[in-house]
Specification:
The protein has one domain. 37% of the residues lie in helices and 25% in strands. It has helices at 5-10, 16-31, 87-101, 110-114; strands at 37-48, 60-69, 77-83. The protein is globular and about 50 Å long.
Length: 115
Amino acid sequence: MSCEQPVRAFARYVDTTAMRELWRESLPGLLGASIEVTGCRVLYARCRTYSKPASWQKSFLCVCYELEVDGGAPSPRIYGKAYLDGRSRLEFDKLATAARGEGSRAAGGWCPSWT
């Protein structure tokens, strides 16, 4: 893996067309509500990579999305953090488990589908 490979691996998370589709599929189930996502905009993205090959697996991407939804609802903002090598899924599972323990719902979305 070259130091540019983490950046390429994270590119899908800033592809607004792909993320709009992912949020369209995932958000209603996560929120337990009927919501139609019609658009997605990246408000902020920060990619942290490491120059040493032994540290590449620590790379991550932070992204803040603003979604457009039907029905005049306020545009939700969703913050996410993606990791390499399946770590996103592990982090999502920890968050979901903690949220269920507190009686609330976990927010997030890309982890179950993409990593």
